[in-house]
């Protein structure tokens, strides 16, 4: 998993858009982990909705490296699907 994003002097992804997309997926994963924990404890739980897929605009200059962001988001989506499978969705 990518631990930091390389900056691009020209191009790349808009930083705010990339961080908003990552934040939405991270919140979803947190909620899914909480639901899984409740399921394992025998408590009632709900399955949160999927985070909306947001468009990440390209930056004219000073953005995050596209490949780094794409890889990170792909890892987050994979984690989300793994948790959903454990919850029986």
List keywords for this structure.
single chain; 89 residues; 2 helices; mainly alpha; 2 strands; two-stranded antiparallel sheet
Structure description:
This protein is mainly alpha-helical. It has one domain. It is built from 2 helices and 2 strands, in the order βαβα. The protein has helices at 15-40, 66-86; strands at residues 7-10, 61-64. The protein has a two-stranded antiparallel ribbon. α1 (15-40) packs parallel to α2 (66-86). It starts with 6 loop residues before the first strand and ends with a helix. The mean pLDDT is 94.
Briefly say what this structure is.
The protein is mainly alpha-helical. The protein is built from two helices and two strands. The chain has one domain.
Total number of strands: 2
Average of pLDDT: 94
Biggest sheet statistics: 2 strands, antiparallel
Strand content of the residues, in percent?
5-15%
Work out the helix count.
2
Element-by-element helix/strand order: EHEH
Provide the domain count: 1
Low-confidence runs of at least 5 consecutive residues: none
Q: Alpha-carbon distance between the termini?
A: 25 Å
> Structural class given helices, strands, pairing?
mainly alpha
The largest beta-sheet arranges its strands as: 1-2
What gyration radius follows from the Cα positions, in whole Å?
A: 15 Å
Shape: elongated
Portion of residues in helices?
40-55%
């Amino acid at each position: 998993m990518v631990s930091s994003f390389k900056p691009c002097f020209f191009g790349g992804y808009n930083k705010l858009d990339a961080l908003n997309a990552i934040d939405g997926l991270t919140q979803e994963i947190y909620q899914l982990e909480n639901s899984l924990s409740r399921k394992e404890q025998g408590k009632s739980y709900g399955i949160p909705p999927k985070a909306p897929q947001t468009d990440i605009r390209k930056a004219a200059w000073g953005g995050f490296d596209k490949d780094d962001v794409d890889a990170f988001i792909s890892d987050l989506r994979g984690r989300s699907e793994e948790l959903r499978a454990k919850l029986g969705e």
